[in-house]
Each structure stands twice: as structure tokens, then as C-alpha cells.
Design a protein that fits this description.
There is one protein chain. With about 70 residues, this protein is mostly helical. It has a domain of about 50 residues. It has 3 helices and no strands. Helix 1 packs antiparallel against helix 3. The protein is elongated.
């Protein structure tokens, strides 16, 4: 059981990292730290909205698995 939980956590971590890198592909470092003067608020549409919702879902699943992992492994 421990091995399965650890394997799932590793897979989720890799998927979450890949998804986060896909989202920040178009932004620069100055925009990430608040220095981008040309940044404007805009609505997510299409693939960007789907990717954002998938990221939130995977993040919630990661947190749930972390809690389960800490409860089972301790």
C-alpha cells in the first residue's frame, strides 16, 4: 500500500509540474514577480480555461493524496 501511494504521489507531482509549466509558457519573469507594466486582466477562454480548471483539480487531488499519505504512512 505504501508503494502504491508513493507512486501515485510521484505521478501526480510530475503531471502537476508539467501543467504548471504549460500555463507559464507565455509569461516572463517580470510579470511573474509583479514587475510587468503591460499586464492586464483578461478572461481565460478555450484551452486556457480548461487547462486552468484541470490544474485546480490535479492540485486538489495532490493535497488529498498528501493527507492520505500522511495518515496511512504514520
Amino acid at each position: 500500500m505504501d508503494t502504491a501511494i508513493n507512486l501515485v504521489m510521484i505521478i501526480i507531482s510530475v503531471v502537476l509540474t508539467f501543467i504548471l509549466l504549460l500555463q507559464t509558457k507565455g509569461s516572463s519573469f517580470s510579470g511573474a514577480f509583479g514587475g510587468g507594466g503591460e499586464s492586464i486582466q483578461r478572461t481565460r477562454r478555450g484551452f486556457e480555461k480548461t487547462l486552468f480548471q484541470f490544474t485546480v483539480g490535479i492540485s486538489v487531488f495532490f493535497v488529498i493524496m498528501a493527507v492520505i499519505s500522511s495518515l496511512v504512512l504514520s
